[in-house]
Amino acid sequence: MSERRRFVRIKFDAKTELSQPPFTWPVKLLDLSLKGLLIEKPQPWLGNVEESFMAYIHLGNEVKVEMEVRLTHDDHGHLGFVCEHIDLDSIAHLRRLVELNLADDDELERELAALIQI
Fold first, then answer.
1. How many domains, the chain?
2. What is the pTM of this model?
3. In terms of residue numbers, what domain contains 77?
4. I need a surface site. Which of 2, 52, 53, 110 has the fewest CB within 10 A?
5. Given pLDDT bands bounded at 50, 70 and 90, which one contains residue 99?
6. What is the pLDDT confidence band of residue 114, given thresholds at 50, 70 and 90?
7. CATH of the domain at 18
């Protein structure tokens, strides 16, 4: 039986957009992890679940996290996405955000180690 690694999810509110050309949706971010995000489902929802999306999370002062994501679940008005690609600047910002919200340095190191192994 294989153990599925779960990343700590941080409840976080930031200006967030989801994009899949030709559409861009402003969305409500519910939570965030080193490996994905959960948002409220925008209306109307016209996303193609067979294609990837870009998520843009604005942290302020022109700092943002950009990640290429894939939809993993759509239920109860929420959309869950897993990160497929993230650039080094974005992962540094996301790491800092997780670090500030986790009171445990050891947990952060476990999260980062798990992320690298994926």
1. 1
2. 0.79
3. 11-86
4. 2
5. confident
6. low
7. 2.40.10.220
